Amino acid sequence: MPRHVAIIMDGNGRWAKQRFMPRVAGHKRGVSAVRETVKACGDLGIEYLTLFAFSSENWRRPADEVSVLMQLFVGALENEVAKLNDNKVRFKVVGDLAPFDARIRELIARGEDLTKDHTKLTLTVAANYGGRWDILQAANRAQKEKLQQTRASQAIDAPEASPILEFAEITETELAQHLSMAYAPEPDLFIRTGGEERISNFLLWQLAYTEFHFTQELWPDFGRESLLKAIDSYRQRERRFGRTSEQLVSSKTTADANVA
Ligand code: IPE
Ligand code: IPE
Ligand code: MG
Question: Which ligand is nearest to the CA of 27?
Fold first, then answer.
């Protein structure tokens, strides 16, 4: 079973168009698909579910569509968070929240605080999120912190001798610790609905070794069965992380022998 599933929920607009309905109708149905998917993940014992709800590029859409998406977001925050809490789901939002109205930011903060102690399933909603933004903010924060620490230790070790440091190189681990989802393991399974085969600036850093599953199904039609299909496909894969297949087989045999 994957521990962390990350999904690009795409195809709401096309779902509505096929039914001669406004795009908004597709987004509304998309909220029901979210509910069903969260429930299915809880039942299956998946520990982390991350959903891409609004990208940093989605502001480019017509103003009325952006405004409806914001209203749906507020509605979901008002109506769903208490249910998540009842179902012991920890709720998190990642992305640059500065452009959202104070009301949305307040609802997010309250929801995160209310559910912070749950450990069964963590649901992360990516809102005004961009993978490049995330890497950049992490690099900047990691560098700032490292510089302060290095200067502080220099001041203790050799207060007179050291020149004032302008730069301190950061490591991969230090950068990763400042990514907005540092609390979660990297996704095992990435799903994109709607038939498009691209990442659209989702979790760029964290998807380095994730297994990808693309489906033609449109997001409002997605549910438990679709999730099971994706998991089934994931289970057929051999995750090698750069090693050879033979190495994996032999390490598995050793592990089995140790258990026996
Ligand atoms: C995904 O569905 C929802 C958001 C991006 C908010 P789309 O609205 O992108 O649907 P299509 O791709 O136009 O069908
Ligand atoms: C990606 O979908 C973002 C979300 C699902 C929130 P888009 O529909 O915006 O992606 P592109 O524009 O087709 O790449
Ligand atoms: Mg789309």
Answer: 1
